[in-house]
Amino acid sequence: MKNTVVEEIEYYRWAVRNRSYRMNLFNTIIEIIYPPRCPICERFLGNNRVKKIQKDLLICQDCFDDFKEITSPLCPICSKPFESEVEEDHLCEDCLRKRPLYDAMGVPYLYEGGLMMGIHQFKYGGKTHLAGSLGPLLASFAKRWLHKMDGCLMMPVPLHPKRLRERGFNQSLLLARHVAPILGTELDFLTLRRVRDTLPQTGLNRDERRKNVRRAFELKEKKVVKGRSIILVDDVATTGSTLSECARVLKRSGSHRVLCLVLARTSGR
Fold it and tell me: Which candidate among 17, 27, 111, 229 keeps its CA 20 to 30 Å from the CA of 80?
């Protein structure tokens, strides 16, 4: 009996190794026949793909080098970066005048250059496979910024059903699916809903953006968020009006605090 168990264990180990070998061989053959291209610049990747966070990303090194990281000094509330000789983080003018309803926003990159092109291809060009590279980058930042978030609930900013049908996917949800396992948080993409089909925020000023998203969100079940910390995930933030409106709905329903995790934000200049 004992020998049988040992043999079975060894068989499964061999099967796993053999399957891994076959998959690697298959992937190699596919890449020879159809060489992968960078989804941002369309050039062949070859040996120029990014090796970061212990994973080969499907982005070329040249495009990744154009990603602009947000570093201090910055606003500890909205992550707006400062062009200043003062090295310490400090509140920006907007957060001093009117604090957002969320508690803090963490953002690794500026919405400029190669990343702006990548997000545009991701959202509007149908290149959803970019989530396989952008998601792990956001997850890596989230791990540094948030550490371990026991008992937190992660929610992607929802799309209106009409917009979801048109696009076919929610880009924030695709990103969140890479982040939640890294943080060990529960992912909920059904409770927070967008109930009003708002105008696109592009081209609107700060006040118009705030009015545009007013009462655009609601919760399916308020008890789900009561007493819990929420991590809102989105792809891009400009004024933060959408995130602040989501936070208003969550806190009115009893959420303990709301943290926003965003892949990129505008510089605010």
Answer: 229
Percent of the chain with pLDDT over 90: 66
| CA distance linking residue 210 with residue 149, whole number of Å | 29
Same domain, 52 and 78: no
Residue 170 has pLDDT above 50, yes or no: yes
92/196 same-domain check: yes
pLDDT digits (tens, 9 = 90+) for 116-146: 999 999 999 989 999 999 999 999 999 999 9
Contact 245, 128 (CB under 8 A): no
Do 253 and 229 fall within a single domain?
A: yes
Looking at the fold, whether 21 and 113 belong to one and the same domain comes out as: no
Name which of 209, 169, 163, 50 is nearest 114 in CA terms. 50
Residue 122 near residue 165, CB atoms below 8 Å: no
Last residue of a domain, one of 44, 65, 86: 65
Same domain, 5 and 123: no
Tokens of 76: 């500890």
What whole-number distance in Å separates Cα of residue 246 and Cα of residue 37?
37
Domain hosting residue 128, numbered range: 69-265
pTM for the model: 0.85
CA R_g for the chain? 21
Where do we find the tokens 């909920």?
188
Asked whether residue 54 falls in the same domain as residue 169, the answer is no
Q: How far apart are CA 123 and CA 254, in angstroms?
A: 32
12: tokens are: 């499964």
CA distances from 131 to 7, 16, 29, 237 (A): 40, 27, 24, 17
